[in-house]
Design a protein that fits this description.
Number of helices: 8
Largest sheet: 5 strands, parallel
Number of domains: 1
Number of strands: 9
Shape: globular
Order of helices and strands: EHEEHEEHEHEHHHEEH
CATH superfamily: Monomethylamine methyltransferase MtmB
Radius of gyration: 18 Å
Helix content: 40-55%
Structural class: alpha/beta
CATH topology: TIM Barrel
Distance between the termini: 40 Å
CATH class: Alpha Beta
Strand order of the largest sheet: 1-2-4-6-7
Strand content: 5-15%
Length: 240
C-alpha cells in the first residue's frame, strides 16, 4: 500500500479498544500514513436509544482523531435488530452526530452503507438513497458503500448500488434541511414496512455481465424504477 492510501484500524463497541488496535495505530503513526479509524455504534445495544447512541457516536468519532491520530473517521451506526445502517433510527443517529461535529470542527467524516435488501431490488436502492441523502445533507465528506444484504453474503453487491449512492447525494446537494427531512420521512416509510420480508436480490454474476462489467437489462429497469420513486418524491436530478 502507498502512504496516501487509507490504512484501517477499528475501535470496539462501545467506547473500547484492544491492545492489537493500539499497536496497529502506533505503527500507522510512526509510518506516517493516512489512517482511517472505523467504528459502528449499535443503536439498541449497550449505548441505549437514539440520544445515547448519538452521544456515543460523537465520542467515538472524536476519539478516532485524539487517541488514534486518524486522518478521517468511518462511521456506521447500526441497528441492533436489523443489522443495517439505513433504518430510520440509525439514520437519525448518524445525521445528528455528523451535524454536531461538522458545526464545530474541520474533521473529515465518512459513513458506511449496509442495506437490508440485496442487489437488483428497488428496496436496496431506496435504502441506499435514504442514507446518501442523510449523509450529504448532514455534511459528510465520504460515502463508503454499498454492502447490500447487511454485507454478510458473498457476491451480493454491485456497482449499481454505488451509482445510486452517488447520484442521490448529488440530487440533494444544497437542499434545505427541513425539505430533506420531509422527503426522508416519506422515503423511509416506503421500505421500512418490508424489513421482515426484504428481498435478497441477485448475486453479482446474476445481474451483471462479468466480462464487460455492465449491469443486466433487468437491473437497469429496476434502477429506473427506483429513480422514478425518487423523482415522484420531488428530486429533479434525473430530469436533467
Amino acid at each position: 500500500m502507498r502512504p496516501d492510501d487509507s490504512h484501517e484500524v477499528s475501535q470496539l463497541n462501545e467506547l473500547k479498544i484492544d491492545v492489537s488496535a493500539l499497536c496497529v495505530g502506533a505503527h500507522y503513526a510512526l509510518a506516517g500514513v493516512n489512517v482511517m479509524v472505523e467504528q459502528m455504534p449499535i443503536y439498541g445495544g449497550y449505548a441505549g436509544g437514539l440520544e445515547e447512541t448519538t452521544i456515543v457516536d460523537v465520542a467515538t468519532t472524536l476519539n478516532s482523531f485524539v487517541m488514534m491520530q486518524g486522518t478521517w473517521h468511518l462511521d456506521g451506526p447500526v441497528h441492533v435488530r436489523w443489522g443495517i445502517t439505513t433504518s430510520r433510527e440509525v439514520l437519525a443517529v448518524a445525521a445528528h452526530a455528523c451535524r454536531a461535529i461538522e458545526e464545530h470542527t474541520h474533521l473529515m467524516l465518512g459513513n458506511q452503507y449496509y442495506t437490508l435488501a440485496g442487489p437488483c431490488t428497488v428496496m436496496c436502492l431506496l435504502e441506499t438513497a435514504a442514507q446518501a441523502i442523510t449523509d450529504t445533507c448532514s455534511g459528510r465528506e465520504i460515502l463508503s458503500g454499498v454492502a447490500s444484504c447487511k454485507g454478510v453474503t458473498t457476491d451480493l453487491f454491485t456497482a449499481m448500488e454505488a451509482r445510486m449512492m452517488g447520484e442521490a447525494a448529488h440530487a440533494v446537494a444544497g437542499m434545505d434541511t427541513h425539505e430533506v427531512n420531509l422527503l426522508l420521512d416519506k422515503l423511509i416509510g416506503l421500505y421500512e414496512k418490508d424489513y421482515k420480508t426484504a428481498p435478497t436480490g441477485k448475486k453479482f454474476q446474476e445481474c451483471y455481465d462479468v466480462k464487460t462489467l455492465t449491469p443486466s437489462d433487468e437491473y437497469v429497469k429496476v434502477y429506473d424504477e427506483a429513480v422514478k420513486v425518487l423523482t415522484d418524491l420531488g428530486l429533479t436530478y434525473w430530469d436533467k
